[in-house]
Design brief:
The termini are far apart. A four-stranded antiparallel beta sheet has the order 4-3-6-7. Strands 1-2-5 form a three-stranded antiparallel beta sheet, with no helix packed on it. It is built from three helices and seven strands; from the N terminus they run ααβββββββα. It has two domains: 35 residues; 110 residues, Immunoglobulin-like (Sandwich). By secondary structure, the protein is of the alpha+beta class.
Length: 155
């Protein structure tokens, strides 16, 4: 009976993966060619098995240093989001992966978050922006580069 249950789950997983990218099977090809244990987080430098779709999941960051509230805008430029493939949450985390602030999303929502980061309370070089995809796990990017590169008022 356990063997039969395992086969059913395997069959179900195989069929779900085959269609999650709108019928292209792109994720299925990646999984079949590069099976691995999921990483704790994915980055531009270490995209793991999701290298081909990394640009659609990496958070983009805009900072307005003139504001003390809602001074960090985070968005995901992914072109493949749908009812079956979407962003669950966007947020800020500290060096211990504790949430500073986050925003949840539902299927079909546009993944854009306006969050607050108090630079007096946190060390900017230890803060990461994160994006959680329902299919492709947690993606992070350090906020420091964006903080240093934004001119006051950029947003």
């Amino acid at each position: 009976m356990k063997y039969l249950s395992f086969l059913f789950l395997l069959f179900f997983f195989y069929n779900c993966v085959a269609d999650e990218e709108g019928g292209t099977g792109k994720t299925k090809e990646i999984l079949q060619s590069n099976p691995s244990t999921p990483q704790k987080e994915y980055t531009r430098e270490v995209p793991g098995e999701w290298k081909e779709i990394a640009d659609d999941h990496l958070p983009k960051i805009e900072i307005d240093q003139n504001k003390s509230k809602k001074n960090v805008k985070i968005f995901v430029p992914g072109k493949t989001f749908s009812e079956r493939h979407y962003i669950e949450a966007i947020g800020l985390m500290d060096e211990r992966s504790r949430d500073i602030e986050l925003q949840y999303f539902k299927r079909g929502d546009t993944p854009v978050a306006n969050l607050t980061l108090d630079k007096k309370k946190y060390e900017i070089n230890k803060i990461k922006v994160f994006v959680k995809c329902n299919l492709h796990d947690l993606w992070t990017s350090p906020i420091l580069n964006s903080w240093m590169n934004n001119k006051p008022g950029d947003l």
